[in-house]
Design a protein that fits this description.
The protein starts with a helix and ends with a helix. It is elongated and about 115 Å long. The chain is an alpha+beta fold and about 425 residues long. The protein has a six-stranded mixed barrel. α11 runs antiparallel to α13. The mean pLDDT is about 80. The protein is about 55% helix and about 20% strand.
């Protein structure tokens, strides 16, 4: 169907100055519409990828890629679990932990919190909470000192700072002469962290693992072992492999299960946003239909002459398909270039606008993320480009088919 003649005439029609300037204007609008649609899609999806990456890193900064724990909540042979997981090629860090829901009390102020017992020397292997300390540090979490590190929001709720005392109350009870009493212990606030996620800044406190074991009466046992992998997306597979290798019955989970609903909501949001923004490209593609219909009407005599010279209906159809596809290719290429440049420099552009007009799009006093992150993924660029091109190519078929059905005698009757 496509031969040099179709390409030559189709490209000539596209680049020629038409007598009808309105058709040229509609053609330009179609090209710009496709370009703007592709730019918007690439930029918005890159921003959403950036937000998702930022949130994922903040969550995984406090949680772990995978976790090995006992079914009954007390893992006795955790050293063996660490040894076996260490032999796995994808595991790059391990650390034991103890977790329990508790109440923290300071005077009349009470707040529930998840107390996590950690080994300060091993914790950096699986989390980066030490990098988010805003007061104090992790070095004070020593065995027997009963120091505690709080999230920023939790410290504000309790009204405490570094050096203050808080009482940790556990759900366990002990029998005394005056009756059953909850187990509690006074801890000294040694540091405050802020990771930028309310779930952790408001509800997590860190203590030494030995202090947590004594408070919860776990003896030499722990809640589980946290693992860090060289590729977080391999967590489901690595978790299954470790579950098969470890002797006995264990509960092996990964970050995709622990936050399944949250990340599923993010993926759904990205798909729906991409679908909505793709309507911009669809509208621009349908503009090509009106453009080519007017071109076909304007070129009736040219089509008739080509037919009388021996051009087949397929040749005529190929001419207008080439013309419409050229509009689509130009708009898509310009959109790809503009979208990539905008996505790669979005943070600088937003910063320039904020400084020039003295505005703030993301107020750091309200939002944890004060800059507009952008993560350009070439897979998204490729999918957008291919889909936009095929959509514009599809829009050319009906006008091109109408052109191929032109009858020379009818077209030249009034010429």
């Amino acid at each position: 169907m496509f031969k040099p003649l179709q390409f030559y005439i189709g490209l000539r029609y596209t680049g020629a100055k038409r007598r009808n300037h309105f058709i040229s204007f509609i053609s330009l609008i179609s090209t710009l519409g496709i370009m703007l649609g592709v730019v918007a899609l690439i930029t918005v999806l890159s921003v959403m990828n950036g937000f998702h990456k930022e949130v994922r890193e903040r969550i995984l900064g406090m949680t772990s890629h995978a976790t090995v724990s006992a079914v009954d909540g007390k893992l006795e042979d955790w050293q063996e679990a660490m040894r076996l997981s260490q032999n796995h090629s994808n595991v790059i860090g391990q650390a034991p932990f103890i977790e329990a829901q508790t109440m923290l009390i300071n005077g009349t102020k009470v707040s529930g919190a998840l107390v996590r017992g950690i080994m300060p020397d091993l914790e950096p292997r699986v989390s980066n909470v030490g990098e988010h300390m805003i007061r104090g540090g992790m070095e004070g979490l020593e065995k027997g000192n009963y120091n505690i590190v709080l999230g920023r929001e939790l410290a504000l709720v309790l009204g405490v700072g570094v050096g203050d005392k808080v009482t940790v109350v556990t759900p366990q009870v002990r029998v005394t002469p005056v009756g059953a009493m909850p187990r509690l212990k006074r801890f000294t606030v040694n540091g405050i962290f802020e990771v930028g996620m309310g779930e952790y800044d408001r509800g997590v406190a860190l203590v030494h693992i030995e202090d947590a074991a004594k408070l919860l009466r776990l003896g030499s046992g722990v809640t589980g072992v946290r693992l860090k992998l060289d590729d977080l997306y391999l967590a489901p597979r690595v978790s299954r492999e470790l579950a098969n290798q470890l002797p006995g019955v264990y509960r092996v989970s990964d970050w995709t299960h622990q936050h399944r609903n949250f990340f599923s909501a993010l993926r759904t949001e990205k798909r729906m946003m991409g679908l909505i923004l793709f309507l911009i490209v669809a509208v621009a593609a349908f503009n090509i239909v009106s453009t080519l219909v007017m071109v076909v009407t304007d070129k009736q005599s040219d089509i008739a002459i080509l037919r009388t010279l021996g051009a087949s209906p397929g040749t005529v159809m190929g001419i207008f398909v080439v013309q419409g596809a050229t509009i689509g290719v130009i708009g898509t290429l310009l959109g790809i270039i503009g979208g990539i440049l905008l996505a790669l420099n979005l943070e600088k552009i937003v910063q320039f606008i904020e400084q020039s007009f003295e505005v703030s799009f993301l107020d750091p006093n309200i939002y944890y993320i004060s800059s507009l992150p952008s993560d350009l993924q070439w897979r998204d660029v490729g999918l957008i480009s291919v889909t936009a091109f095929f959509l514009t190519l599809l829009a050319t078929l009906y006008p091109a088919w109408r052109a191929s059905r032109t009858q020379p005698a009818e077209a030249l009757r009034y010429e």
